[in-house]
Amino acid sequence: MKHPFKYEIIYSSRKTLAIQITPDGSVKVRAPKRCPKSTIECFLNEKESWILKHVNKAMQNPPVMKNLLSVQERNRYIKIARDIFTQKTAYYASILNVTYGRISIREQKTRWGSCSSEGNLNFNWRLIFAPEEVLDYIVVHELAHRREMNHSQAFYAIVKSILPDYKKSQKWLRDNGRSLWTVV
Asked: Which end of the chain is least crowded, N or C, by CB within 10 Å?
């Protein structure tokens, strides 16, 4: 099947298909290891209008070259982020009555946070330049995975029980998240 865009398939041990549009507008399909090409093609056909919309959006907003930080500057921001996320995580974990493992501060290109099945949490240090309620949302979002390891209605009910306006933070990240890569 021919699509009006090029794409790369990345196979891994994941269970579901996902599409990623990179900041430069390229399309990556993340697929389970044994997923047939025909299934991927059907998925791409179903999502074609969504893909084209986001590829066009990326092409209209080319990635901005980020400033190069010295090792000392980056380490300073990571330390600030570690202090903030350690404090916020402890606070919200007590409210949610959940435990967690290690907290890592990273600079992931495609996500703001994550929670492993062992309860280890990762947070993107660039979030320290976002509004406070966005940081709270990311922490609550990742801790909610300690009760629901998915993005179901039950999961978002947990998030909403702590942060009733969480959708505003989601929207802020969608609309402004790219700017966090240009602050420093």
From this structure: N
Closest CA to 129 of 172, 70, 71, 86: 172
pLDDT in tens, 9-37: 999 888 888 998 887 888 999 999 999 99
**Burial (Cβ within 10 Å: 0-12, 13-18, ≥19) of residue 123:** buried
DSSP per-residue string spanning the chain: ---SS-EEEEEES-SS-EEEE-TTS-EEEEEETT--HHHHHHHHHHTHHHHHHHHHHHHHSPPPPPPPPPHHHHHHHHHHHHHHHHHHHHHHHHHHT-----EEEE--SS-SEEE-TT--EEEEGGGGGS-HHHHHHHHHHHHHTTT-SS-SHHHHHHHHHH-TTHHHHHHHHHHHGGGGGT--
Looking up tokens 């993107």 gives 124
**Is the pTM for the entire model greater than 0.85?**
no
* CB-based contacts of 108, cutoff 8 Å, min separation 6: 114, 122, 124
Closest CA to 125 of 148, 102, 152, 104: 104
Cβ–Cβ < 8 Å for 4, 49: no
